[in-house]
Amino acid sequence: MKNIRFIYLLFITILLLNCSNENDTTDTEINSIHKSEAEMAQPNFRDLLLNGTTAKYAPPTIRTESDLVGVDSPGCYNVNVRVYISVDGGNEYLVANDNVLVGDCNNGNRGSSDPKCNGYLPDGNYVYENGTQEDICLYELLIENETAYNQYLASVSRFLN
Question: Does 19 share its domain with 87?
Fold first, then answer.
């Protein structure tokens, strides 16, 4: 009788462990499916912002934020500028994130060798990469998209007053 109980308990234990392992695999597979669906649903921001392509989407809403990183010298502010885009259902994506020298500044050899990502804006401020990897360089976006540039001007104006 003891042998039958032992075999029965061993059988139940193996069965429960096997069921647990199958569920873990299924959860992982489900998570990877949801992640790939989300990645596929993400719009092409370069087309939306730089080329004006809105075939599948309503026109995007652009929002710009800026924060003071530091004061390089009197009248020269190092500002982090981020551009967000909201498409269709209100999902908001960070599409550009770089730094700008605002005010009376010397660029001090900042930036990378990519001319799309560094340069002087029409207002005289200098945009340079801060090491983050976003979909679009801030400099390229501000030069090519008037809406983003106007929001940038409003966002950094508080540092000049």
Answer: no
Name the residue with higher pLDDT: 28 or 153. Answer: 153
Confidence of residue 81 (pLDDT cuts 50, 70, 90): very high
Residues 72 and 15 in one domain: no
Q: Domain limits at 2?
A: 1-41
Per DSSP, the chain holds a count of helices (H) and strands (E) of 4, 5
Alpha-carbon distance of 103 to 90, in angstroms, equals: 34
Co-location of 96 and 125 in the same domain: yes
What pLDDT is stored for residue 135 in this prediction?
Answer: 73
How many angstroms separate the CA atoms of 72 and 85, rounded?
30
Do 74 and 129 belong to one domain?
yes
Number of structural domains the chain divides into: 2
What token pair was written down for 110?
């900042």
pLDDT digits over 134-150, tens only? 778 899 889 988 888 99
* Whole-number percent of the chain with pLDDT over 90: 13
Contact 80, 97 (CB under 8 A): yes
Q: What residues are paired with 13 via a beta bridge?
A: none
